Known about the structure:
Number of helices: 1
Helix content: under 10%
Number of strands: 34
Strand content: over 45%
Shape: elongated
CATH class of the largest domain: Mainly Beta
Number of domains: 3
Radius of gyration: 35 Å
Amino acid sequence: MRLKLLTVTDDGGLSSSIARTIEVRSAAVPPPPSLSIEVWTDKPSYRIGERLTLGFEVHPQAYVYIFSVDPGGLVTRIFPNPFSRNNYIEGRYTLPDGPYALVVDGPLGREYLYALASSRPLDLRLSGVRNPALLDPEAFRAEVARRLGTPSGWALAWTSFQVEQPGPPLPPPTNRPPVATFTYTPSDPLAHRPVSFDASGSSDPDGRIVSYTWDFNSDGQSDATGVTVTHTFPTPGSYRVTLTVTDDGGLSGSTTRVVQVRAAPAPSPTPSPPPPGTLPTATLTIDRGCGASYQPGERITVSFSVSEPAAVKLFDFTTAGQFVQLLERSLTAGEQGNFTGRVVGPAGIETLVLFARTASGSGTITTAACSFTIGNPNATASLTVDRGEGGSYRPGEPITFTYSVSEEASVVIYDFEPTGILKRYGLGWVPAGVSRSFTATIVGPAGVETAVLMAYTRSGKVLTAAVSFKVVP
């Protein structure tokens, strides 16, 4: 409080004064918002082996830790975890939020979940503690306060659920047979020319198809297997082609189509063999060009050839994280092989690899690769070697691979060596945008070698990249 005096004087010298008391108060500072957190599960009880989904809501933004205490009193921290590392959160959140599951594993009884919110990171070291008293929420709260040394600056919520015996197995459903159907291209096939057969239109009403068997000459014997296959008819004529599909319940369905094959024009002269010491080469392309983009369900045609007669295999490193063989056949020198299928997905970067073992000499191995994008993954991966794409190395020399990803990912590199061995390098987690390298030794023998990178991101995408190089004598 202060006293203020105001005096006013006119031009005649007369004065007048007034005094007022002014009260000064300090401004009110609002306290910081208090932490609040809630936690819940999708069901009140679970059988052993069931998957659990839990949710929580926290305000304002805070570090969140979730612990389970099983009916035996064993404490386990379930969040954050190696798959869900970011625990500085505000708002509503659901777990699991990545490529993992929360599975109820017992023992029987009531299990408790505790959600702890803190304005700062904590290291409670509770995981692994066994104390049945912690099944009481107030005892758990007291233990947290004891370990933190303070009852404030954090908030705790809890929920519980009953763990029950696993139920009896359900009776198996009645199985219905699959429906077989196929198409072929070209629609006017020629003798001695490859024809692509596609059974992707086949379906199973109550399960999935596990095998596709093709009979191209009506002898009742299997001539090829797979969703898409390529066959060359030896002479002109009518051929009854039968496709048999079998589902995961063991039932089969078949369809037969008559394929009219015309005589092919006279073959071109056989090319001269390559000079001694020349490495055989392989080419691999797709209809839109390597690096192109496709949507799931669209058709894709793969074309390939080799400079010498060879037995070839076509492999696919898929965006579903699988490594599958699409076909196996023989090619003459310069002959073009084709494979037509449908893009499956999900979004990511997929890589095809052609693996060819030549028929001449000791069977030199040559490879080629082609990558393409599915959907819009908004992520990339790269793989290079120190001497560049197509560079040459001799057996015993070192080779340095450099790789990077635009999202944090677990990285594996597969190397198709000229020995015919597929070597695998598990390289662990790689941060986004960070280039890493490792060095290996060229084994030989001479050939064209291809390495493929597969990156599994935390968001569930699969990204691939490839590089090819020569191994010279």
